[in-house]
């Protein structure tokens, strides 16, 4: 039954010239978009590794509440750091996550294991540079590639 529904949608796509032109443009731009995907992955990979190193020992609890960091957004391991950066790249409470990395009630000792402080200079630079690169530069490059392929 599902196969028939999919076939029906494909039949409708053949009839709609505007949608067909859009799909043709997307198919022509796939190689360039693939290169941009690798660039996004490299950016996220580098910043996730930095995030684990810088913010991996921050913790949230009842005594130390967090605005952005929590069970589903933290830098304790590489995978969650990658997903947290994806949230930051989409603009989902990135300023709350940055505020949690700047809190003052943390352990400032050299042999810190949990809830370690981060430099108040490094954390804003980390997040602002990442947001500028992910939200503005790379997204605009994707749009530029799409427009370039449309004009060909």
From TrEMBL:
Keyword Transmembrane helix (UniProt): yes
Q: Which InterPro entries match?
A: Ion_trans_dom, VGCC_Ca_Na
**Record keywords:** Membrane, Transmembrane, Transmembrane helix
Q: List membrane-spanning regions.
A: 121-145
The domain of life for this entry's organism is Eukaryota
Q: Which residues form the Ion transport domain?
A: 1-145
* Compartments in which it is found: Membrane
Tell me the membrane topology, using the record's own terms: Multi-pass membrane protein
The answer, when asked if Transcription is one of the entry's keywords, is no
Q: Name one GO biological process term.
A: calcium ion import
Return the GO cellular component terms, semicolon-separated: neuron projection; voltage-gated sodium channel complex
Gene Ontology molecular function, alphabetical: low voltage-gated calcium channel activity; voltage-gated sodium channel activity
Q: What is this protein called?
A: Voltage-dependent T-type calcium channel subunit alpha-1G
Q: What is the source species?
A: Eumeta variegata
Q: What gene is this protein translated from?
A: CACNA1G
């Amino acid at each position: 039954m599902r196969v028939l529904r999919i076939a029906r949608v494909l039949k409708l796509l053949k009839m709609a010239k505007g949608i067909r032109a859009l799909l043709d443009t997307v198919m022509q731009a796939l190689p360039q978009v693939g290169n941009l995907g690798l660039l996004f992955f490299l950016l996220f990979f580098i910043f996730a590794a930095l995030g684990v190193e810088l913010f991996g020992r921050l913790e949230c609890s009842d005594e130390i509440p967090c605005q952005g960091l929590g069970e589903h957004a933290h830098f304790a391991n590489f995978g969650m750091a990658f997903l947290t950066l994806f949230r930051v790249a989409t603009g989902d409470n990135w300023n709350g996550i940055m505020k949690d990395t700047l809190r003052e009630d943390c352990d400032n000792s050299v042999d810190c294991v949990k809830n370690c402080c981060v430099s108040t200079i490094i954390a804003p630079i980390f997040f602002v540079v990442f947001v500028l690169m992910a939200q503005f530069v790379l997204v605009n490059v994707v749009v530029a590639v799409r427009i370039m392929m449309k004009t060909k």
